[in-house]
Design goal:
Elements (H helix, E strand, L loop, with lengths): L6 E3 L2 H9 L5 E3 L9 H6 L5 E5 L4 H14 L8 E4 L13 E5 L4 H6 L1 E6 L9 H8 L4 E4 L14 E4 L2 H9 L2
Parallel strand pairs: 1-2, 3-4, 3-6, 4-5, 6-7, 7-8
Length: 174
């Protein structure tokens, strides 16, 4: 830990733990809140893209396959932009899915994002895609178990879903 210039924490519990163990080069990412409800926020947003950012790790692949089979089939006229090495994996093509691949500047991706989606079925600990969304003040639509370990607040900075139907409705309501 002392080899890093700074350790980014997502809650005060982690900072306290690290401080108790003599590690003080910590920084808290402040979770943002939205002035009104999740859906109303999107209606006034200038951002354009619904994004999924992921590596070609097995959890991302399983989650993306779940999205394509159980959620995307219910979406009408809604494009989803996919970034990262997950684009190197061969999936069944869908007209509304735009695969961009690896990008050098992830900030520009989030700058243009209306929201990010995280349809993962397995919680992999702290999901970097959720933390990145929070850092760039981009709301997240995610499955319920993915939100554990974060300070996501349903209908404030995220929409937390328990089923594929809830997830597809959240995307459609944007």
């Amino acid at each position: 830990y002392n080899l890093a210039d700074e350790i980014i924490c997502i809650n005060n519990v982690d900072i306290k733990f690290l401080n108790e163990h003599g590690i003080f080069n910590t920084k808290l990412i402040n979770y943002y809140t939205v002035d009104s409800s999740f859906v109303k926020y999107f209606g006034n947003n200038y951002r354009k893209q619904i994004i999924f950012v992921g590596s070609n790790g097995i959890c991302n692949i399983q989650g993306w396959m779940y999205f394509l089979k159980h959620i995307n089939t219910k979406l009408k006229n809604i494009n989803v932009h996919v970034y990262g090495t997950i684009c190197n994996v061969k999936f069944d093509l869908a007209e509304n899915i735009i695969y961009h691949g690896y990008v050098e500047d992830i900030k520009s991706v989030y700058k243009n994002a209306l929201c990010s989606i995280c349809p993962l079925l397995i919680n992999t600990g702290v999901n970097i895609k959720v933390i990145e969304s929070i850092q760039f003040k981009v709301p997240v639509i995610c499955m319920e178990h993915v939100s554990s370990g974060t300070n996501l607040i349903d209908m404030n900075n995220s929409k937390i879903c328990s089923t594929a139907d809830e997830f597809s409705k959240a995307v459609q309501d944007i």
